[in-house]
Amino acid sequence: MKILLLCNKSPWPLHEGGPIAMYAMISGLIKAGHQVKVLAANTNKYTVDPASIPESFVQSTGIEFATIDLSIRPMGALYHYLKGQSYHVARFRTLSFESSLVRILKQEEFDVIQVEMLYMTVYLDIIRKYSRAKVILRAHNIEHLIWQRLASNSRNPLKKHYLNHLYLTLRNYELVIMKKLDGIAAITETDAAFFRKYTGKVPVIAIPFGIDPESYPATNPQLTVTDLFHIGSMNWIPNEEGIKWFLEKVWPESKKSIPFLSIHLAGRAMPGWLTTLNIPGVIVEGEVPDAWQFMQQHAVMIVPLFSGSGIRIKIIEAMTAGKVVISTTIGAEGIRYENGKHLLIADTAEDFVDAIEKVMTNVGLRRSLGQNARNLMLVQHNNTELISRLTLFYQTLIQDNS
Length: 402
Prior knowledge:
6-stranded parallel β-sheet; 13 strands; 2 domains
C-alpha cells in the first residue's frame, strides 16, 4: 500500500512520546513493505532542523516540512471564544501546510492517508477534494478529555471557565469530525470504546504503541541504584501540574522517610519555577540527549498524572527497560497491567509515599516488578504484530468500497 502520514510534529528526533510513537509506526509500515510518505508540521512549539533528520529516514519517507505558527494570539483566541469554536484546532490550519499538502496530493495517489492527532483533521476538506484515499485518524488520545480533566482540577474560577470553554469546543469538534473519517486507529482499547460509542458506523481499532525488541535490549536493572526519576515534556500542562503536585505533596514526606532519596527530572521546556528550585535531593536535568540511557541510570519512574488521555510512551519504554513504575491510575491508562505485579498504582500523596518506601527498601520487589514489566511489554506491544493488525484494518477499509 501507499500511505501518506500527516504529522502534527516531526517524527524525529525521538525526544517526546508523540514523535516516538509516530516513528515506531512509520518504521513498522516500511519494514512491512509499504510505501510511506510523510508531511510534518514544523512548529514554533516543536522546531526541527530538517538537515538533522537521518538521511536513511529521509530516503525511506521523502519527509517534507511545512511551517505552522502555534503562537497564541489574544485576538484569535477571543474571536474563537466568541464564535464558540476550537482555537486549538484552528491554529493548525495554515496556507503553508495546505499548499504543501495540495501539491503532494496532485503529484501522487495514495491508498491511505493517516492523520496523526486530531488537529491534523483540519485538512480533511483538502484531502477529500484532491484524493480518493481512505482517511484514518491515528488518535494518540481523546483530546477533549485532557482539557476536561484540566478544567475539573483547576481552582481558579476564571481559568476554570476558560479551560471549560476549550474543553467544550474541542469536544464538539471531535464528535463531529470523527464521523467524517473512514476509520480510527485508537492507541488504547479504552479510547477505542469511546470512539465506537460516538462514531456510528466508522470502523475503529485499538493499536497501542509498539516496540521493536531489537531496539530495546534487556539491560542490567541497576538494582543497587535507589533513586527516582521522571521524564516528559514540561510544556505539556499535565506533566508540569503533576510534578508540581508531587514536589509539594509527596516529596517532603518521602525525603523525611528516606533521607538518602533523590529524584532526577528530565524533559524538554523546563519551566522557570522548576529550574530555579533549590530543594535537597531534587536534581533538574532538563532535556537529555538520550532518554533510554537516562532511564538506564536511574531506578524508579514516577508518573504523577491527574489529567491526560491516551497512553504514556515513556512508561512503555521504562517498563521495557525493566524499570519499576509508580503511577496514578490516569497515568497508566491504556496499559493492561496488574497492580502490584507489573507496576504500582498510587492515586494519593499517601499512596505515593508508601509505594516509594516499599520499593526502595525491597530489592526483590524491584527485581520482580521490573522483570514482569518487561515481559508484559514484549508480549503486548510487539510492533511487528501490531503493524500486521493495522495493515489488515487498512486493507479491509479499502476493499469495502472497491
